[in-house]
Amino acid sequence: MRRFFLIAGEPSGDALGAALMAGLKELHPDVAFAGVGGPLMAAQGLESLFAMDELSVMGLAEVLPRYRQLKRRIAECAAAVLAQKPDALITVDSPDFSLRVARRVKATSDIRTVHYVAPTVWAWRSGRARKMVGVIDQVLALFPFEPPYMEDEGLRCDFVGHPVVTQPRADAGAIAAFRAAHGLAPDTPLLLALPGSRLGEVGRLAPVFGAALRPVLARHPSLRVVLPAAPSVAGQVAGMVADWPGDPILLDPRGRDGAAVLAEKRAAFAAADVALAASGTVSLELAAARTPMVIAYNMNWLSFRIIRYMAKIDTVTLINIITGTRVVPEFLGPDCEPGPISAALLTLLDDTDARAAQVAAEDETMALLGRGTAPPGLRAAHAVLDGLPPQVA
Fold first, then answer.
1. 144 — phi, psi (to 5°)?
2. Burial (Cβ within 10 Å: 0-12, 13-18, ≥19) of residue 109
3. Phi-psi bin for 125: left (phi > 0), alpha (psi -120 to 50), beta?
4. Which range (228-232, 258-262, 368-372) has the least confidence?
């Protein structure tokens, strides 16, 4: 029997961990799991030591009041790993917590440690890879360009693919149903507006997005704006977009079934002609739906200057990074202004070639992330098992 101890601290990590567990069970049915995870990992057979939500804290202000509790949980997890002696400790993202557990485990044992999701050393803070040496034996990477950065520090790193390639895509029937549900004719052009999922970023971006849309709608009066709101900020978004032009269609998830909300969001992504979005992994969701986009983001002036100073790349959009192009226009920090954003959106709407270039880059991105190959969870399971010594009969 193979035994694995897994730790995930966020919903995204819970999804990655569950897919990995499913892959391990497929490749090695005689397997047992322990650790910390959420509902998706529980469905795969994990009985969590404690609620994963305890680890879902971000930022200094949130962490400080729970510092002692988190330290206790680190010690508790490390003690459980040492007592159970699994074939491997697999930590999924949440590096601030996970790597502290792994460091304690490695201090008194030779238990193999695997970290799922490579740190973004290709973007900034390259020293994070060096700090993993001696703590982590193997890294599982979501992006194909990441392994060399880890390998340069002597770490084994396997590219296993990104989960976006396995997400369902809305078909023609779903798109038609979405349009009908919102009174949209089959030929009505649609623009997605995605100003973020956190209150701070929505507060900064919503006014800019609204102003940027005015000249766009003036030139394209038949255009409809669709705004899928994240559950965490739906109420605030509804108020912030009340004075946007064009009577935007707000997709409000509050009080609705989660699966239905997700299906509607995918249909909206697939139905849209173009999108204006905050920077982040949403760009990959848009790429999976083959939706051309403009990316915009702003933050505190000092934070932007510090990050810009430390950054090792000149773009934050993953399609640009993965394909080695700059086909997706982006407006960051002081460049996040309505005028340039409007001009970029109008170019996409008016120029068939510009849209086609983006769609080609999006298709290339999905192929490079693993679309058409084995699912990332199964590839991750292969990599984990490949790193283990043969079992003694």
1. -70, -20
2. middle
3. left
4. 228-232
Looking at the chain, how many residues does it have?
393
CA 315 to chain centre: 17
Q: How far is CA 256 from CA 204, 260, 262, 264, in A?
A: 27, 7, 10, 11
pLDDT tens figures, 109-131:
999 999 999 987 654 556 678 88
What's the CA angle centered on 142, arms 379 and 63, to 5 degrees?
A: 120
SS3 308: helix
pLDDT of residue 302: 53
pLDDT of amino acid 141: 95
Question: 86: alpha, beta or left, given left = phi > 0 and alpha = psi -120 to 50?
Answer: beta
Q: pLDDT for 338-361, tens place per residue? A: 999 999 999 999 999 999 999 999
Where does 101-188 show beta strands of DSSP type E? 112-116, 138-141, 156-159
- Both tokens of 13, joined, read 């990590």
- The model carries a pTM of 0.88
Q: What is the pLDDT of residues 160-203, one digit of tens each?
A: 999 999 999 999 999 999 999 999 999 999 999 999 888 888 89
Q: Does residue 61 have a pLDDT over 50?
A: no
C-beta pairs of 181-185 under 8 Å, 24+ apart in sequence: 182/226, 182/249, 184/224
- DSSP of 225-279: EEEE--GGGHHHHHHHTTT-TT--EEE--TTS-HHHHHHHHHHHHHH-SEEEEES
- The token duo for 308 is 């810009």
Residue from 328, 293, 303, 302 nearest 314 by CA:
328
Rounded Cα distance, 261 and 283, in Å: 19
Task: Measure the CA–CA gap between 93 and 101, rounded to whole angstroms.
Answer: 12
Question: Which three-class secondary structure state does DSSP give residue 165?
Answer: helix
Q: How many CA atoms lie within 13 A of 56 on its CB side?
A: 13
Between vectors from CA 299 to CA 298 and to CA 303, what angle results, nearest 5°? 135
